[in-house]
Design a protein that fits this description.
By secondary structure, this protein is an alpha/beta fold. The protein folds into 2 domains: 192 residues, Rossmann fold (3-Layer(aba) Sandwich); 156 residues, Glycogen Phosphorylase B (Rossmann fold), CATH 3.40.50. The protein contains 15 helices and 13 strands. Pfam families: Glycos_transf_1.
Length: 389
């Protein structure tokens, strides 16, 4: 009789919220991204956190200890330089973290973590979602940052890991709509593009004033195929006529020689300031840079690994009401034209750099204000997650 009364009072206390009920654990894991990454933390993580239904575990890279927060835990896979050797053995550390966390649902954002994710899936019986953020095989082939033998080895490994994982991944999230064409063998997917995570800024038609001192911005990952050096040379040409302009570059460079090249070039141009690092930077730092900038530069190379995608920076510009200049791309132009938000340039066309920019500065921007169509679709994401609980 005493036992039955005890059980009754425990159940009653839970119903009255007097005893804590452990929330289901969800882990979101990445190798290359910072703990407070634009997609894993802001788009996916904060969307889940707002429901107050789950305990979130964010796994990634950080040089600092993140503050403790209710229903949010951070775990570092790396806290210093991420060498290729350390990345090769990252699955060993990831195994230990999964054993410690014991998630009910795991979202991995890179192929590198799939081996450990599959092993622990059999042991812990969690659901596995692969957030496919990049076409990694195409990236390796097109970006040309590796010697040929390393490139071939990387492609072989990615193909092996992704194909072996396919039967055991419960669902895929495509970060780009073009992945529907690039991955025809995947049927269980949801498209969730890298649109802006926060509130859309209310904007009205705007125009630059004559003789206005303008700050230009390049942000995010800084690699050769993103055209940063070409944009710096383009900006140096602009300064010959507009010496009061300023260019800020914020982000991280995964290739050391490229960071050195940027620093050497910036040292010769006082109007270019760098906030760059070998390590990933928190998304908050990039958002802060948007607050003071006037024009955003998107000087991406038009490679098959880049041109079919919509840059997240474009959605950020639209959401924050920032005019932008981008490399020629018909799909990007179509989006920009909807709002009169930007113009396409050839950043390598130094001869016409000034005249092209002057044509740009004459325009009136944001004649049509962007609305919820440029915002990350939280509702679709949350419905997907709720289907597993």
């Amino acid at each position: 009789m005493i036992v039955f009364k005890s059980i009754f009072f425990i159940i009653f206390a839970i119903v009255q919220n007097k005893l804590p009920v452990e929330k289901p654990k969800i882990a979101i894991a990445s190798v290359l991204k910072p703990l407070q990454d634009a997609r894993a933390f802001y788009r996916l993580g904060l969307s889940l956190r707002e429901t107050n239904k789950y305990h979130l575990n964010i796994i990634g890279f950080s040089l600092k200890n993140e503050p403790l927060e209710e229903d949010l835990s951070h775990f570092k896979l790396f806290d210093q330089e991420r060498s290729a050797w350390k990345r090769f053995f990252v699955n060993i550390k990831f195994l230990g973290l999964l054993k410690k966390i014991k998630p009910k649902l795991l979202i991995v954002t890179t192929y590198e973590l799939l081996p450990a994710a599959l092993i622990m899936k059999f042991l812990l019986r969690y659901k596995l979602i692969y957030d496919l953020q990049e076409n990694y095989i195409l990236n390796v082939k097109q970006n040309k940052t590796l010697p040929k033998w390393k490139q071939n080895l990387a492609v072989f490994w990615i193909v092996l890991v992704e194909n072996m994982s396919k039967p055991f991944v419960d669902h895929y999230i495509f970060a780009e709509d073009c992945y529907k064409r690039e991955f025809p063998g995947i049927a269980n997917f949801t498209v969730l593009e890298n649109k802006f995570y926060g509130e859309i800024k209310s904007v009205s038609p705007t125009k630059f004033e004559s003789n206005q001192a303008i700050e230009f911005l390049i942000s995010g990952t800084l690699t050769p195929v993103y055209g940063v050096i070409e944009a710096m040379h383009w900006f140096a040409e602009i300064l010959k006529v507009y010496p009061n302009f300023h260019l800020k570059i914020v982000g991280h460079y995964p290739i050391k020689f490229y960071g050195k090249e940027m620093r050497e070039l910036a040292s010769k141009v006082p109007q270019i300031s760098l906030e760059i690092s070998e390590n990933p930077v928190d998304y908050k730092q990039i958002l802060e840079a948007y607050e003071t900038c006037g024009i955003v530069l998107l000087p991406y190379y038009q490679l098959p690994s880049i041109s079919p995608k919509i840059p997240s920076k474009m959605y950020e510009c639209l959401a924050l009401g920032k005019p932008f200049i981008f490399s020629p791309n018909s799909e990007w132009k179509q989006i920009a034209n909807q709002y009169q938000s930007g113009l396409e340039f050839e950043f390598t066309d130094l001869k016409n750099a000034v005249s092209n920019l002057e044509d740009f500065l004459k325009l009136t921007f944001y004649c049509k204000a962007p609305k919820q169509e440029v915002r990350f679709d939280r509702a679709v994401f949350l419905r997907l997650i709720e289907g597993y609980f």
